[in-house]
Amino acid sequence: MPDTIRTPATLVTGANGEMGHGLIERLAEAGGHHIIAMDVRPIDDALKALCGTTLVGDILDSRLLERLASEYQIRAIYHLAALLSTRAEFTPEAAHRVNVEGTMSLLKLAIEQSRWQGAPVQFLFPSSIAVYGFPSVEAKRRAGKVREHEWTQPVTMYGCNKLYCEHLGRYYTRHYRQLAADAEKAAVDFRSIRFPGLISAVTVPSGGTSDYAPEMLHAAAQGKPYPCFVREDVRIPFMAMPDAITALLSLQAAPLARLTQTVYNITSFSPSAGEIRSIVRGAFPGSDVTFLPDDKRQAIVDSWPEDVDDSAARRDWGFAPAYDQKRAFEEYLIPTIRRRYR
Ligand code: SER
Fold it and tell me: Could you state, in order of their start, the residue ranges of all structural domains in the chain?
């Protein structure tokens, strides 16, 4: 029987975060979605106008999720809420609760919704280069581009959480209750991207370890000094935020039959911290960026790869970033940040 009572909807958790902002704008622009935006902090007014429903609440609040299920037919979930890698190290158990138990409760919501709808609910999950873990800088340099199954020995709670949730998603999609006589016909359709460090011109991240790149840029644009917490020679992959959002939407739109994996690497450019400083100096000549490495945060970045192999994403769902390093800085980051702080 068709469900005529509950409104079809797209749920976005962590809506107030960096990705949430970009994603909700794009979903609203595309139209056709009743967006439910959920966050532990009140949703920004600018976003509110774009959403059908906004909710201040915790993803661990099972009553809240049950209420959502009674009111909406949730067709897709973008589960963006997480405690990032630096923040998670201060409260690892809390990080586990939010990052893992929170994901579990949303997967449960997704499978229940799939059963009601008789069709898989899509579950889009941002994972991270933090799932990788190199034992030394030499091993990292030698490895170059890493593939999805290589070097997955994360050193952070956040990395462990993301890696485990990738496995949970694959389990719910392919193996959920595999021994049951009524094994699932309409399982969850979990799709995940391992993002590199993301740089947005409109928001500043909080609590991540790749944050030195966006922080350097936003500080320089405001004429503030910035002591960078990693060495000049450190190198990890990055991407401009619009490409990250496009990637999520492209993966969501890809025909399931084309997807050979549930988790995909993507990347765009891999500058060293020193190279980022040179670009920032070129754009903001008076900028004052110094290198004052924090050994412990540095060690986390040293455990992340210099580059990732994203050939599976390119092959299966046509991933191709629009912004390489030059375009990202010259056409998106620098002009937009300039306007922002003028
Ligand atoms: N950019 C994130 C962080 O630094 C990793 O996903 O925590």
Answer: 82-199+239-268+306-323
For residue 22, the surrounding DSSP H or E stretch is helix 18-30
| Best residue for ligand 1 mutational test, from 87, 210, 239, 263 (most atoms within 8 Å of Cβ) | 210
Q: Is the CB of 161 under 6 A from ligand 1?
A: no
Substitution candidate for ligand 1 out of 158, 162, 308 with most atoms within 8 A of CB: 158
The CATH class of 82-199+239-268+306-323 is alpha beta
pLDDT value at residue 100: 98
pLDDT for 233-268, tens place per residue?
A: 999 999 999 999 999 999 999 999 999 999 999 999
**Backbone phi and psi for residue 252, each to the nearest 5 degrees, phi listed first:** -60, -40
| Whole-prediction pTM | 0.96
Ligand 1 centroid to residue 307 C-alpha, Å: 15
| CB atoms closer than 10 angstroms to residue 141 | 12
User: Which of 128, 263, 301 to probe ligand 1 with, by most ligand atoms within 8 A of CB?
Assistant: 128
The rounded Å distance from CA 208 to ligand 1 centre is 4
How many residues does the structure list for the chain? Answer: 342
129 CA → ligand 1 middle, Å: 8
The contacts of residue 203 (CB under 8 Å, 6+ apart) are 18, 21, 241
Dump pLDDT digits (tens) for 76-117: 999 999 999 999 999 999 999 999 999 999 999 999 999 988
Q: How much is the average pLDDT of 320-337?
A: 97
Determine the longest span between alpha carbons in the chain, in angstroms: 69
